[in-house]
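User: I'm curious whether this sequence folds into something compact or stays loose and floppy. Could you predict its structure so I can see for myself?
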Amino acid sequence: MADPKGFLTTPRETPTRRPVDVRILDWKEVYEPQDLGALKKQAGRCMDCGIPFCHEGCPLGNLIPEWNDLIWRGEMKEAIDRLHATNNFPEFTGRLCPAPCETACVIGINADAVTIKQVELRTIEEAFANGTVVPLPSERLTGKTVAVIGSGPAGLAAAQQLTRAGHTVAVYERGAKPGGLLRYGIPEFKMEKSILDRRIAQMEGEGTRFRSGINVGVDITGSELRTKYDAVVLALGATNWRDINVPGRELKGIHQAMEYLPWGNKQALNELNEAPAINAKGKHVVILGGGDTGADCLGTAIRQGAASVTQLEIMPRPTEERPSAQPWPTYPMIYRVSSAHEEAGERLFAVSTEEFLGDSAGNLQAIKLVETKMVNGKFEKVAGSEQEIPADLVFLAMGFVGPEKSELLKQLEVSFDERGNIARDDKYATNIEGVFVAGDAGRGQSLIVWAIAEGRSAASAVDEFLVGETQLPSPIEPTARPMMV
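Assistant: Here's the prediction. I'll summarize afterward.
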């Protein structure tokens, strides 16, 4: 145990966010550095529970009490070793994960949980700063080759594990640079891309090969992949976005969130010679969807200089306390305020879009809304509650419904489950021998920790397939679902 009385004497303290009027003028990350001494005290709040429910909350099985104790003692090298033992990319999860481990923290039963996420993040940042994070190439090669399709967190985790097992791994990415949604979907103010680039550099130093700007299924066919490589891992993500079918959907100015966010990142990184193709500057912006992607659109629109931003959510406003139907240690649906929500904009709950309204030239001008209420598990309109709000731009941030049914998947002839995801067995194998699937493409839209855990687990299965046995860890087994054509 770290500090035996830490959870009693030390209050929870998280890093300070930079002042709103300062941070909206740039694209840098929003948090101020936290003093290392203060962080050690926060790690000392961990009780080293006899049954650490934080392990249950984390799909990766992070050894949280162990590295909390090591940080409290100042043993930074040992702490990062324990953290890396279960998590390839703590610098990603420490910034982007909603921390289900903290909602499962035992202290959280009747007090404020340990700041697990921040301890994790500072541990890896100290390791990078001290030069502790270095390439770890395999001592010997197996002669086996693997293609990983997709370079999001699942693909990167699978690639790193398989490379370290001695296989020759090539990661294919249709974007100009590797990273998937980490690069093109996550705004710079949440994770600066230099954070991603330094991890890619480590992987390249270990021997992982990146093939960016290649649309697999078009530039190289599925049959060519299977001929060239001993195994293929599909880590395509769930990029088939959910749309809305209401009158006026065809009007100019309505875009999917993932059509918009990459332009914000390019602008933040000074990769554009002119204004972004989708630009919120001076416009009234409405975002459909109250989740993290909607908040990412919100923060991006604010930094571009939007005239106003309104975020809509069909569900009623959550309570600020844990609902009785979601007891500890489950992850509760409570009212959360992201950094973007602090900056500007209005949030409307329990509303539904009735119609998009435009001018004679087909340009969006407004949205017609109606209030909703839940009756017998269904949303019903509240009579007389219709209203219109101005809108020059609308971003649809309503989630994703599985992988795109791309040419590659047709060529490989993989099967799908009843939810439209790529079907797999308990070894992450599809119905096609030598073809495996990991992450959102097989699981459905989920959290970054699940993606990394699935990438690690799929790598273990692929390693066993290639050489008959494996020493790679497998944090989780996929949820088995019947295969469908």
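Summary: The first helix runs from residue 6 to 9. The longest strand covers residues 364-375.
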